[in-house]
């Protein structure tokens, strides 16, 4: 199953997950594997775990599976089971195991996620630095992140002939997996940035974003560009994910419609319905939101 887990990691990379997130998946799998090999030395493949193994591991984490032999925290347990569920689901989807042994287990209570997004001041600082670089491609990448909320691999997969840009409207077809395909409207800012960038292109690449060495931007290439501006601006949480989260938070703050935001963000259930629960993370107020709320009742 080692080869299959390596395939799973490659799958995560293709999805555009941050290297730190992928490292966390590796750590969760390593800890589970070591525990399982210890309690059942005759089992040489952690991928062969059954439902009882998962239930016993949950009990182990609750009792003494944390640091220093103390019970694991709720957030640690929740994240561990999110990781294991996705790993075993992938194994099952690839036909390596008959069922996902994590699926029937009652999951640990979820810790409320706090996604990183950027305040208006941070967004302004980022875009000023991008424009200072005079790179129309970089400007288009950041503008599409902030105004369309794409995942990094979705941005890399955009095709030029699937862009629709008119004077007063526009859209882009975003390719996902299963029911995750969606059409995202492009506002005036996104259209202008894309038109300006594409007007200077004289290559025949079918992709919207290219690099000097390739007809298609890679996930790593886009991540490298964003990391460059993180260092320049000093905004420590700046990443492809934080730019996407900023779109989700800004959008929900404006339209206050979870279903619309879920559809635009590509939050879908397996049956294709909008995943409202996933979109709820954007209802968490930021520090700036709380300050504005208190300031709104000021007498002065």
Structural write-up:
This protein is 54% helix and 4% strand. It has 300 residues and is mostly helical. The longest helix is centred in the first third of the chain and has 21 residues, at 19-39. The chain is globular and about 65 Å long. It starts with a helix and ends in a 5-residue tail after the last helix. The model has no long low-confidence stretch (mean pLDDT 89).
SSE topology string: HHHHHHHEEEHHHHHH
Compute the number of structural domains. 2
Count of DSSP helices?
13
Strand content: under 5%
- Mean pLDDT, all residues: 89
How far apart the termini lie comes to 66 Å
Q: Which architecture name of the largest domain does CATH use? A: Orthogonal Bundle
Strand order of the largest sheet: 1-2-3
What is the CATH fold-level name of the largest domain?
hpI Integrase, Chain A
Assigned CATH superfamily of the largest domain: Intergrase catalytic core
> What is the radius of gyration?
22 Å
Number of strands: 3
Summarize the topology.
Blueprint: H1 2-14, H2 19-39, H3 51-64, H4 74-93, H5 120-132, H6 136-148, H7 152-156, E1 163-165, E2 170-174, E3 182-185, H8 188-199, H9 219-233, H10 240-255, H11 258-265, H12 276-279, H13 287-295
Antiparallel strand pairs: 1-2, 2-3
Summarize the structure.
With 300 residues, the protein is mainly alpha-helical. 54% of the residues lie in helices and 4% in strands.
Keywords:
mainly alpha; hpI Integrase, Chain A; 2 domains; globular
